[in-house]
Amino acid sequence: MPPIPTLKSLKSGLENRDFSSAEITRAYLDSIAESSLNAFITVDEEGALVAARMADERYRNGTAGSLTGVPIAHKDIFCTQGVNTTCGSKMLASFTAPYDATVVTRLKDAGAVCIGKTNMDEFAMGSSNETSFFGPVKNPWNPEAVPGGSSGGSAAAVAARLVPAATGTDTGGSIRQPASFTGITGLKPTYGRVSRYGMIAFASSLDQGGPMTGDAEDAALLLAHMAGFDHRDSTSANRNDEWLSRLQTENLPVLDSRLRVGLPTQYFQAVDNPVLQTALEQVRVWLEAEGHECVEVSLPHTEVAVAAYYVIAGAEASTNLSRYDGVRFGHRCENPESLEDLYERSRSEGFGDEVKRRILTGTYALSVGYFDAYYIKAQKIRRLIARDFIDAFSEVDLLLTPTATGPAFNAGALTHDPVAMYNQDKFTVPVSLAGLPALSMPCGFDDGLPLGAQLIGPHFAEERILKLAASFQRATDWHARTAPCACIPEVLQ
Ligand code: GLN
Fold first, then answer.
1. What is the pLDDT of residues 144-197, one digit of tens each?
2. Which residue has the CA at smallest separation from atom 5 of ligand 1?
3. How far is the CA of 221 from the centre of ligand 1 (A)?
4. Is 173 in the pocket of ligand 1 (CB under 6 A)?
5. 109 assigned to some structural domain
6. How far apart are the C-alpha atoms of 297 and 305, rounded to whole Å?
């Protein structure tokens, strides 16, 4: 098994002149062109090659920075100046943003070469990538299976080695669940850690961008460049975490303390897949063998998290998406007869079924007469869930849970049952409601499909999570296994 190309290995290959950025960018572009996963909505061949040649120039003149010349991809929810940003929707199918998202600017400034924009569920609403206007994405481990969602394009691209790393966003699990389904590492940072400026809004109190990579070391490196205070995002956390800035140029330090890891009873009881149970048990055995202590903890309000999440996320989506009115952004219907007709038809034609479902339920939850019964109640539940975690973290350093209820399900299996689809998110949405950081890392396989374990930490404890994940990955090779259709460019082998 050739080692997987990582951001770090590509960077050192570029520094040693083993290959040029133009060469590897070309190789990745060729693999993407041959791939039938539908992981990309837009491939920016010309822009990527220009950026790669400029990167090579910087190596020649000694001004290369920490990610110079390394190809990455952005989820198509991040605005990119001059390159289409569709958010997986017909509504924005021909939208080009006039500016870059802060995440895009930061990674560009670090020298990364953006190779294209990855496929996703429409407006990030979904758990399987089947709501994308641009068609579903296939799971590289099995083309019948979904890659998860909503960042399914980024996950499939990284898993198939079409790009070493990609950005994703997570509102209720959209980085972690696709990472779990495709056997990669995905980190949802603490809410406020990564700027939301230029990241198309779904549910603003939950949305958070983060890295999707081959391993935890790369997640740390990408996070170090994505994160940081941004005055353009009013919920951006103004913190000066030195450990994080250091990761831009230094390796993630090795974990040198023994941790108390909590295993939430409610999560483990809800797992009925025996292979996943065994895989998680193996993680626990490894933790204890490393000298960490594992204890059971209780998160009593877990069961109501999905209901609360879908009320709050829908409510926020219904207001955020009111801007798509056929006037200012996106799709406009032909020959409107009146202003109302313009709004009605532009929105009916531009949005897909799942987005309409969210707008309708969200508007309902916010309407006079139902506001207290749904929205306010959901907010109260959100508070209780956040408190469950605070209580748990008064006793333990991190939590270990499954990321998803099992391996990737088959395409079409849940599309006719929205509630069953929503219930897929039961292990990821509580973390989102509490604004906590959490990472999914590969921990086994079920019938050839990857399984993921989730590490959850207190607010801003990404370092602890990343260090533990990296130490797990030094001891195991789940993350290094390569999907059947993956294709490591020859120049990197
Ligand atoms: N699957 C969840 C939803 O559909 C989460 C999506 C996300 O995190 N963007 O809302």
1. 999 999 999 999 999 999 999 999 999 999 999 999 999 999 999 999 999 999
2. 172
3. 25
4. yes
5. yes
6. 17
Question: In whole angstroms, what is the distance from residue 193 CA to residue 188 CA?
Answer: 10
For the Cβ of 153 lying below 6 angstroms from any atom of ligand 1, the answer is no
| pTM for the structure as a whole | 0.98
Ligand 1 atom nearest residue 170's Cα: 8
DSSP bridge pairs for 464: none
What residues are paired with 456 via a beta bridge?
A: 399, 438
Task: Name the residue with tokens 């202003």.
Answer: 339
What does the CA dihedral 55, 58, 63, 66 come to, rounded to 10 degrees?
Answer: 20
CA of 328 to the centre of ligand 1 (A): 26
Atom of ligand 1 lying closest to residue 126 CA: 4
Q: Which domain holds residue 165?
A: 7-256+474-492
Distance 367 CA to ligand 1 centre (A): 23
Check pocket membership of 429 for ligand 1, CB cut-off 6 A.
no
**Residue 289 is assigned to a structural domain of this protein:** no
Task: Please tell me if the CB atom of residue 126 comes closer than 6 angstroms to any atom of ligand 1.
Answer: yes
In a domain, 141, yes or no: yes
* Residue among 399, 403, 392 nearest 464 (CA): 399
- A 10 A CB-CB count for 486 gives 18
Q: Is the CB of 170 under 6 A from ligand 1?
A: yes
Among residues 423, 464, 448, 466, the alpha carbon closest in space to that of 177 is found at: 423
Catalytic residues: 75, 150, 174
DSSP 175: T
Is 361 part of any domain?
Answer: no
Is 124 touching ligand 1 by the criterion CB < 6 Å?
yes
Tell me the per-residue pLDDT of 351-400, one tens digit each, with 9 for 90 and over.
Answer: 999 999 999 999 999 999 999 999 999 999 999 999 999 999 999 999 99
Per-residue tokens: 389: 């975690």
The alpha carbon of 424 and the centre of ligand 1 are apart by a number of angstroms equal to 10
Strand partners, 294: 261
Token readout for 178 is 């696709």
Q: Domain containing 166 — which CATH number?
A: 3.90.1300.10
Number of domains in the chain: 1
pLDDT at res. 2: 66
Confidence band of 492 (pLDDT split at 50, 70, 90): confident
